[in-house]
Design brief:
By secondary structure, the protein is mainly α. It has a domain of 100 residues. Helices cover 75% and strands 3% of the residues. The protein contains five helices and two strands; from the N terminus they run αααααββ. It has a two-stranded antiparallel sheet with strand order 1-2. A hairpin with a 5-residue loop joins strand 1 and strand 2. The longest helix has 43 residues.
Length: 155
């Protein structure tokens, strides 16, 4: 029977890697480097998938050891195991997971902000009144304020 600690150590390594990727993502979000962001997305998904697999394996190991086969089984297992190293690794995984969730939340806010800014710019470029107010250059190279006239004949 494999100890839950084996999987926990692997999770610790993966969450540290995920944190580094999220920090890199934040840098690219701030710098609006969409090419690098696109490269990070599959890496993040892969790490999250690997972490989910390891958590499932750790849960199975907890169940095999006679504990609840989910996160709730960790504390009782740690209490019975009396392993200070395992308790430290577990605390570290929990701390890093909280940090990763916060980084992901902030990155999500940055993405929303950039999407909103981009949408405002797109709307401004599409809006006929915005183009007229901004002025456009005519064939002579002179700014043409007001754009083409729209006169309607009623009658």
């Amino acid at each position: 029977m494999t100890s839950p600690l084996v999987y926990l150590r692997q999770e610790q390594t993966l969450i540290a890697t995920l944190l580094a990727v999220l920090k890199e993502e934040q840098q690219h979000l701030v710098g609006a480097d969409t090419e690098r962001l696109a490269e990070l997305t599959p890496r993040k998904a892969e790490l999250v998938e690997q972490m989910a697999t390891l958590a499932a394996q750790r849960h199975a190991a907890l169940g095999a050891a006679g504990f609840v086969a989910e996160e709730a089984g960790m504390e009782p297992w740690l209490a019975v195991a009396g392993n200070d190293e395992a308790a430290g690794v577990w605390r570290d995984v929990l701390d890093q997971t909280r940090a990763a969730k916060e980084l992901n939340r902030v990155n999500g806010m940055l993405i929303t902000k950039q999407m909103t800014h981009t949408q405002v710019l797109i709307n401004a470029m599409r809006s006929p009144t915005a183009a007229a107010e901004a002025g456009v250059y005519g064939p002579s190279g002179q700014t043409n304020f007001g754009g083409p006239s729209r006169r309607y004949v009623l009658g």
